[in-house]
Amino acid sequence: MTIQYPTIADCVGNTPLVRLQRLPGETSNTLLVKLEGNNPAGSVKDRPALSMIARAEARGDIKPGDTLIEATSGNTGIALAMAAAIKGYKFILIMPDNSSAERKAAMTAYGAELILVSKEEGMEGARDLALKMQAEGRGRVLDQFANGDNPEAHYSSTGPEIWQQTGGGITHFVSSMGTTGTIMGVSRYLKEQNPQVQIVGLQPMEGSAIPGIRRWPQEYLPKIYQAERVDRVVDMSQAEAEHVMRRLAREEGIFCGVSSGGAVAAALRLSQEVENAVIVAIICDRGDRYLSTGVYDEPK
């Protein structure tokens, strides 16, 4: 008998969906979180990273040995660096210099070249530089912000997994919004199964900095974003997101990043408004890539 062993790429997706036991308190609702940190490169971005490269390859847009360029605040960059290593591409990643040391180190560990822009230039500056480098012929930009292969990854995997794991019982889906690929793809799938499922997006409130998610200026709003696919947008403070992130580790044993804390905080708020609901939130990554930032240092 010939055994077909999986490759690392085969291990992306099919992540666990687990029930929160303590944070929800007494409630008729069921609060579930999808552990995307269980993906090989540690985040939900593994899904679109492989999707964007594989689908571009299938179309003949790129071929192994080419140089790819992407602007990223962290998780997508790590995932793309992994995908490029798997498939044999050179990768240049452009990111703000205030990203955590762990994120930078993970990208270079996979063999990517890192270019930093200032905190003031931010992701907008990183995106502009990526397009400038492409215009100069230095590589091909995948552009997660405008690439339909990003939400398609979640339409074909994340959404169906959640539907199957809840037995079609999901009533609310909560996700932080960065590129918006996750919420766009999952919303499209879930609404096709049941138009009554409520889709809740999360953005930082004015003045808050939550890694991986943004309150985009209109001119930089991701082109893949369709406002009609989101029923409600929640503004989240950095302090509340970090507080719930720490509670998840200490009270649920779920070690995650700040945007995941924000998504669960929004789910907890929502749980105060509804009854007999099945609420699913995305835990988009693991907490170990944030330790150097000090967000876990607050006294208990």
UniProtKB/TrEMBL annotation:
<keyword id="KW-0808">Transferase</keyword>
<feature type="binding site">
    <location>
        <position position="259"/>
    </location>
    <ligand>
        <name>pyridoxal 5'-phosphate</name>
    </ligand>
</feature>
<dbReference type="InterPro" id="IPR001926">
    <property type="entry name" value="TrpB-like_PALP"/>
</dbReference>
<keyword id="KW-0028">Amino-acid biosynthesis</keyword>
<comment type="similarity">
    <text>Belongs to the cysteine synthase/cystathionine beta-synthase family.</text>
</comment>
<protein>
    <recommendedName>
        <fullName>Cysteine synthase</fullName>
        <ecNumber>2.5.1.47</ecNumber>
    </recommendedName>
</protein>
<keyword id="KW-0198">Cysteine biosynthesis</keyword>
<feature type="binding site">
    <location>
        <begin position="178"/>
        <end position="182"/>
    </location>
    <ligand>
        <name>pyridoxal 5'-phosphate</name>
    </ligand>
</feature>
<feature type="modified residue" description="N6-(pyridoxal phosphate)lysine">
    <location>
        <position position="45"/>
    </location>
</feature>
<dbReference type="InterPro" id="IPR005858">
    <property type="entry name" value="CysM"/>
</dbReference>
<dbReference type="Pfam" id="PF00291">
    <property type="entry name" value="PALP"/>
</dbReference>
<feature type="domain" description="Tryptophan synthase beta chain-like PALP">
    <location>
        <begin position="9"/>
        <end position="285"/>
    </location>
</feature>
<dbReference type="GO" id="GO:0006535">
    <property type="term" value="P:cysteine biosynthetic process from serine"/>
</dbReference>
<dbReference type="GO" id="GO:0004124">
    <property type="term" value="F:cysteine synthase activity"/>
</dbReference>
<keyword id="KW-0663">Pyridoxal phosphate</keyword>
<dbReference type="InterPro" id="IPR036052">
    <property type="entry name" value="TrpB-like_PALP_sf"/>
</dbReference>
<comment type="pathway">
    <text>Amino-acid biosynthesis; L-cysteine biosynthesis; L-cysteine from L-serine: step 2/2.</text>
</comment>
<dbReference type="InterPro" id="IPR001216">
    <property type="entry name" value="P-phosphate_BS"/>
</dbReference>
<feature type="binding site">
    <location>
        <position position="75"/>
    </location>
    <ligand>
        <name>pyridoxal 5'-phosphate</name>
    </ligand>
</feature>
<dbReference type="InterPro" id="IPR050214">
    <property type="entry name" value="Cys_Synth/Cystath_Beta-Synth"/>
</dbReference>
<dbReference type="InterPro" id="IPR005856">
    <property type="entry name" value="Cys_synth"/>
</dbReference>
